[in-house]
């Protein structure tokens, strides 16, 4: 029971015994709340979780005193819930044989293990967030479950699923970036990508050109004013001219070069082309097209 009293306009709560009305004490060792007068156990199985009884000051102490395992990860074939037994300290031959038999991986687990390692490598190199990785892994598991992986490489299908997940989640990553990180040929990844599209019936949105600008301006060390000016230039250009059939990288490079010149940022054509991954000839041609087709009064 709770007794509510008012002292000087302030409300205070006092826990009292429901039998005799006495005060209640907490036994932390046994996890019980007991009346101090009649000895009635009011609540048992009560644990204090606001602090830990095991204090750790270094990483080694934390790992030694921890009572939990690693976090559940979708990149692991068993979600990280398996138990690993060290075979070196086992003297019983029957137990050794049982551990050895249990350590064999089935083809399904081995396939998912190879795919998760490749997916983790690609996502780490490309800086892809966890929610996109989970979508890509879900795509791959469905493809493998329905036997659509026969005759195709695991790494090629992983790259295709990752690109489909990036497009589906509107993450600004190009096909060429994934292709540069993958050891599989462009033709093979495109075939796997078509399988993913057809099986899931994905209607992927068109990549937003504007979403790539912050990556390039940040890599070039340009400030926010230049970035906003580049976005305004592209928006003004795209309202008048369609970019269908043209590589958007040249458009990025031309808009960044124009904005850097007008803002006196001191970025050269060579530096822009190295970051955007295009040629200086393409930059200059797109630069001239942008100047001819935008209205500087509306920017």
Largest sheet: 3 strands, antiparallel
The CATH architecture term of the largest domain is Orthogonal Bundle
* Strand order in space, largest sheet: 3-4-5
Total number of beta strands = 5
Order of helices and strands: EEEEEHHHHHHHHHHHH
Structural class: mainly alpha
Q: Distance between the terminal alpha carbons, to the nearest Å?
A: 69 Å
Q: Look at the structure and give the CATH class of the largest domain.
A: Mainly Alpha
Compact description:
This protein has helices spanning 59-65, 93-102, 107-126, 130-145, 154-168, 175-181, 186-200, 213-219, 224-240, 248-262, 269-276, 280-293, and strands at 2-7, 10-15, 24-27, 32-35, 41-43. The protein is mainly α and 299 residues long.
Write the layout of secondary structure elements.
Blueprint: E1 2-7, E2 10-15, E3 24-27, E4 32-35, E5 41-43, H1 59-65, H2 93-102, H3 107-126, H4 130-145, H5 154-168, H6 175-181, H7 186-200, H8 213-219, H9 224-240, H10 248-262, H11 269-276, H12 280-293
Antiparallel strand pairs: 1-2, 3-4, 4-5
Helix pairs in contact: 3-4, 3-5, 4-5, 5-7, 9-10, 10-11, 10-12
Structure notes:
The structure is a single chain. This protein is mainly α. It folds into three domains: 1-68, no CATH class; 107-200, Orthogonal Bundle (Cyclin A, domain 1); 209-298, Cyclin-like (Cyclin A, domain 1, Orthogonal Bundle). It is built from twelve helices and five strands. It has helices at 59-65, 93-102, 107-126, 130-145, 154-168, 175-181, 186-200, 213-219, 224-240, 248-262, 269-276, 280-293; strands at 2-7, 10-15, 24-27, 32-35, 41-43. It has a three-stranded antiparallel sheet, with no helix packed on it. Strands 1-2 form a two-stranded antiparallel ribbon. Helix 4 (130-145) crosses helix 5 (154-168) and helix 9 packs across helix 10. The protein is extended and about 90 Å long.
